[in-house]
């Protein structure tokens, strides 16, 4: 009877003596056997490159992320074959793990938002643990965040704003595929322009990492699609005629300072100052000043 593995191998990340390792775990086969474990990385779409191979009686295998054979940004697989001692030709069918992406992930991986002022939470997480390379006990990676407009026809300023320009990923126990996480909010910029659907990106770059593993690594960008929404307008013009956001029209011929507009949901208001410009013939006022918060 040939042996077989009951379950699919699973890759997790952990620190071993302060260095990042990947661990391939698999179920024991019956009867007790040896295991051939082949580690590989995705070198190009659909193509794998072998990085390590070992034969072991253990139901797990470790490989170090050394920055050379295995680097951040790699998608890693382990393939396990079981065989009986003394009869290596009687092998089980090889079982493949799912691909494990080692590095920084953004969740969600892309965003579709609108110019409606809503905040959207973007989670930045590391699938590998954060090591402490220095003597000061600083176990964190700082990521600088930036935005870019991807419109090739008419590039301009990005249509998105972030709540922070950098986030710190602090060392914490790995749980699921997350070994460190932080959040940032993304909001579409209300630009008062009818510019249709525009695409921007969010980039993250590790800031001066001391750990050699992080030095040549740039995480994948996040694509953010922003849907244009019509912008409301209100007016005060000539002697002053006023048109409100909902199209109501009236006149205000008085002299003084007036509250033209105030938001009930955020700190935003507009004041206008009106001055006599009709002389003796008519009671007419004109806008002579404006202040906006």
UniProtKB/TrEMBL annotation:
GO cellular component, one term: extracellular region
GO MF assignments: signaling receptor binding
Recorded coiled-coil stretches: none
Keywords carried by this UniProt record: Disulfide bond, Signal
Short name of one Pfam family: Ig_VWDE
InterPro entries assigned: Dev_Signal_Modulators (IPR050969), Ig_VWDE (IPR057885), VWF_type-D (IPR001846)
Protein name: VWDE protein
Species, as recorded: Dasyornis broadbenti (rufous bristle-bird)
